[in-house]
Amino acid sequence: MITALDPTALDGLADLLVEVVDAGASVGFLAPLDHADALAWWKERAADPRLTVWVAHEGPRVVGTVSLAFPDKPNSRHRAELVKLMVARDARGRGLGRRLLDAAEEAAVADGVTLLHLDTETDSPAERLYQGAGWTRAGVIPDYAADPGGTLRPTTLYYKRIGPPGSGG
After folding, report:
1. How does strand 152-161 pair with strand 136-146?
2. Based on the number of CB atoms within 10 Å of its own CB, is 76 exposed (0-12), middle (13-18) or buried (19 or more)?
3. Which of 125, 132, 105 is nearest to 116 (CA)?
């Protein structure tokens, strides 16, 4: 089940973040990531009014998440950045990533967003997900961020026009 962020999910989100970083996902952290640090990061994110977070559960366990970050500038309120799409290793390959992506896109349309953008580690499995969901590759930035092991890796930028006809989507 995919729901909006509930504060009771923060500990599970911290577990998920630690898991994906330990597995090598480039999501902004170096390994090893301490659970307390991951929990503090999620608490900060939960308090950010410009961020909307969705959480996927299997029973009581958090198995996935995705967020939309909304800019605070008047000239950019038509867009949002898709951030931190994460799926637990044992929940992959069952369409959960796509369902999380769809939930974020549907909510963005409902909020009047007509353009989404994101970046993801070049040649990561996430690239196939975004390409299959109709996202357009905009380019690659070399040596953009360190992976969890500290090696600089390129990132690929993607965007997607969304929304009803006539909205720019």
Report:
1. antiparallel
2. exposed
3. 105
Tell me the domain boundaries of the chain.
Answer: 2-161
Q: For the domain covering 2-161, report its CATH number.
A: 3.40.630.30
Query: Among residues 154, 151, 153, 117, which one has the least CA distance to residue 137?
Result: 117
Q: Would you say how long the chain is, in residues?
A: 169
Per residue in 86-123, pLDDT (tens digit) is 999 999 999 999 999 999 999 999 999 999 999 999 99
What one-letter code names the amino acid at 124? S
Q: Tell me the two tokens of residue 129.
A: 């997900």
Which structure tokens are listed for 166? 């006539």
CB 107 within 8 A of CB 52: yes
pTM here is 0.94
Which residue type sits at 22? D
Going by their DSSP bridges, the two strands 115-121 and 51-58 should be labelled as unpaired
Closest CA to 108 of 78, 151, 63, 88: 78
